[in-house]
Write a structure and sequence with these properties.
Shape of chain A: elongated
CATH class of the largest domain in chain A: Mainly Alpha
Number of strands of chain B: 0
Number of helices of chain A: 14
Radius of gyration of chain B: 29 Å
Largest sheet of chain A: none
CATH topology of the largest domain in chain A: Methane Monooxygenase Hydroxylase, Chain G, domain 1
Oligomer: heterodimer
Strand content of chain B: under 5%
Order of helices and strands of chain A: HHHHHHHHHHHHHH
Chain lengths: ~350, ~350
């Protein structure tokens, strides 16, 4: 716990240092620049550096910021050229200010917010400096080039100062979801076999709440993989599969409740306990990126499940849904073992890119 | 668009912010027009535009006080930025900016309530320095700036008084949003091809279904009435389990049966919501589905569990629609569009 707090403090210190260095450089460059609105350089550098953990988050914000600036310049440029009167600009200033705050609703589309913010600021500046001819050239040089410059400074500084943690994050997420699945699975099987703790069973609302966490992180991973769409899609597939496996746990729990299953006894109870042990071993092997060992345990798990399908409880329909769900999970585990993501993470680990 | 908007702002935080922002800017523009010519006049607009971001505190009085304190800090930063710009003092400016921006990062991580004020102090410092640099004739005077800051602050405080709430409840709109998304989900699943496992579906469709399920659960959490919320969640639990129902290692007849139940229940839910302009028609659609489920042949794998989930969904939905009699659940989306949505072409 203390180690994690230390690491968080360390990252915060690095973030503060990166921000301070970025702003010092950006202010210096802006001061030396002879152009009128060079303050866009430190302003952009500040906005890009705000929430970054790693150089790749900086890259993501940079791309969004530049895209948003381009859209904002186009929108405001068209308005300024079509309605050059000050009264019209004041009206659009109010409209864009409202839209800027409104656009924060779509938090996944940061560029949306940047576009309206840019349009608002351009309106404001066009009122502040009504004597300046607001031509498209002016808008492009003053806003876009300085925006790109500020973002570049932030990017360069974060690349030097911030540690590149993305891949570690990816492996950590992989392990985190496998562990989460196992804890829920164990709780369900323990209810059936009457051994061990039962807390932590899968609840659909809980499964979706954590699904929301990863869906927010997904855009970041597309940058982390430097736009390697193939691996990124594999990662999305993995997350979908683990999500489905957790819903299967919920199906097992619901089946136990809805048919009021009694605790399994004798050979069935032993098989369920063996299934839990083998599943744990498969998952641990996957977390350690040892595919061959995982395949070995999978074969044993398959034999256990085969025997479960022959039990009286399955044949007389009492445990049918539970056993089918368990077999479904076994199939998913086999897909995970042979999936691209496992291969990719194992390859990265073996080729000198330390992931742990 | 409206449904999507509500879905993203279920607590009404951003809508309240938008209202305050528009009022503040409107008041700022009015003060700017009234202030007459003067280089400092435009700072009214800057304060009115950015000053609102530092709203913190649980009661209106506390919010007003914290806002007043933050406006004083923001105005003082404007003064210092313009002064450094006029005097071309880059070293103190760079030092102050570094300090404020590093403090922003710290506050965002540890002192959330102060982060808005400190963040905008940094932005004001940068912008004011830039404006001070280009104000070569030193047209912005201390008196002019003080008047502008006061007028800008009044605009901001006025907006906070006129829109005193920081969040609000969408009331009946939440239910409308839920029914709309539930119908989209049901249409998408009702028209889905037969599948053995949920993972067999195309990636895009899976992502869309997942997003809809997630949005529905999120919407249901924001329903105030506990009975209604319970029913919504019971419907969703049932439908989600039906959507993912396990079939591994079973016979083709069983898989076909599972798919028939699945497509039957989802089509029925979609039908109840599309046709549901009155509860009797919805109840008739539900009865039709119940008859279909009971007429299905016995299956050695299916312990009747999936059918029980399906029936529970129908019961809950019928009760809800009966209670909502008079409410046009079908009005959120015209019937013509349902086929397009079923193809997953529109979001």
């Amino acid at each position: 716990m203390a180690k994690r707090a230390d690491s968080r403090n360390h990252v915060l210190m690095l973030q503060m240092a990166a921000m301070a260095v970025t702003m010092a450089i950006a202010e210096g460059v802006s001061f030396l620049c002879s152009a009128e609105q060079s303050f866009w350089i430190p302003l952009t550098a500040f906005c890009v550096s705000l929430y970054i953990d790693t150089p790749l988050t900086a890259l993501r914000r940079t791309v969004n910021r530049i895209l948003g600036s381009i859209y904002g310049v186009i929108i405001a440029g068209l308005v300024c050229l079509a309605f050059p009167e000050q009264e019209a600009m004041l009206v659009f200033l109010v409209v864009f200010a409202g839209l800027t705050l409104w656009s924060r609703v779509f938090f996944k589309f940061y560029y949306f917010f940047v576009a309206f913010m840019t349009a608002t600021v351009i309106m404001l500046l066009s009122i502040l400096m009504i004597h300046t001819p607001l031509t498209p050239d002016y808008l492009i040089t003053e806003r876009l080039i300085f925006t790109a410059g500020g973002a570049f400074i932030s990017l360069a500084v974060s690349a030097v100062i911030m540690p590149s943690l993305e891949r570690l994050d990816m492996l950590r997420t992989y392990r985190h979801y496998l562990t989460r699945f196992y804890l829920e699975y164990r709780a369900s099987l323990n209810r059936l076999s009457g051994t061990g703790p039962e807390e932590g069973a899968a609840v659909i609302q809980g499964v979706f709440r954590s699904a929301r966490d990863y869906s927010e992180k997904l855009p970041l991973w597309s940058y982390a993989l430097l736009f390697n769409r193939f691996v990124y899609r594999s990662f999305v597939r993995f997350l979908h599969r683990i999500h489905k496996m957790r819903i299967m746990n919920a199906a097992v729990a619901s089946s136990i409740d809805s048919v009021s299953l009694p605790e399994a006894e004798g050979r069935t109870a032993e098989l369920l306990a063996e299934n839990r042990r083998m599943t744990k071993k498969v998952l641990l092997s996957l977390m350690l990126l040892d595919r061959e060992r995982a395949q070995g345990y999978l074969r044993k798990l398959s034999a256990v499940n085969e025997e479960l399908s022959e039990t009286e409880e399955f044949r007389d329909n009492r445990m049918a849904t539970v056993v089918i769900a368990i077999r479904d999970i076994e199939l998913d585990l086999s897909h995970l073992t042979n999936g691209t993501l496992q291969l990719y993470l194992a390859w990265k680990n073996s080729s000198g890119h330390e992931l742990r | 668009m409206l449904i999507r908007y509500i879905r993203n702002d279920l607590e009404g935080v951003y809508t309240a912010e938008m209202l305050r922002g528009s009022i503040s800017m409107l008041a700022g523009v009015a003060f700017y027009e009234l202030s007459g010519p003067g280089a400092a006049g435009a700072y009214i607009l800057i304060i009115a535009l950015y000053g609102l971001r530092a709203l913190a505190g649980k009661t209106l009085i506390r919010r007003l006080l914290s806002m007043a304190a933050s406006l004083i800090l923001l105005s003082s930063v404007l003064f210092s930025g313009i002064f450094f710009g006029h005097e071309r003092l880059i070293v103190p400016q760079a030092l102050l900016t570094c300090l404020l921006s590093a403090a922003t990062v710290y506050c965002l991580a540890r002192l959330k309530d102060f982060s808005g004020t400190v963040m905008f102090m940094s932005i004001f410092e940068v912008v004011a320095f830039g404006m001070g640099l280009i104000d070569r004739g030193r047209e912005v005077t201390a008196e002019g700036l003080l008047t502008a800051c006061a007028a800008g602050s009044v605009s901001v405080l006025l907006a906070v008084i006129l829109v005193p709430f920081t969040r609000f409840h969408w009331c009946g709109m939440i239910n409308r949003c839920f029914y709309h998304d539930l119908r989209l989900y049901a249409l998408m699943m009702g028209s889905a091809e037969f599948y053995e496992s949920f993972t067999d579906l195309p990636q895009k469709r899976k992502s869309r279904i997942l997003a809809l399920q997630s949005a529905l659960l999120n919407t249901s959490e924001h329903v105030l009435d506990p009975v209604r919320r319970g029913r919504y969640q019971s419907i969703l639990n049932g439908l989600i389990l039906i959507c993912y129902w396990p079939t591994a290692g079973t016979e083709p007849e069983h898989i076909a049966r599972i798919n028939r139940i699945r497509s039957g229940i989802f089509s029925c839910v979609a039908g109840m919501l599309v046709k549901g302009r009155n509860s009797s028609r919805a109840a008739a659609a539900a009865d039709g589905c119940r008859r279909m489920l009971s007429a299905m042949p016995e299956d050695r794998f299916c312990n009747g569990e999936m059918t029980r989930h399906a029936l529970r969904v129908l019961d809950d939905l019928t009760s809800l629609l009966r209670e909502d009699r008079g409410y046009e659940y079908g009005a959120a989306m015209p019937e013509k569009k349902t086929e397009e949505y079923a193809d997953g072409k529109k979001s």
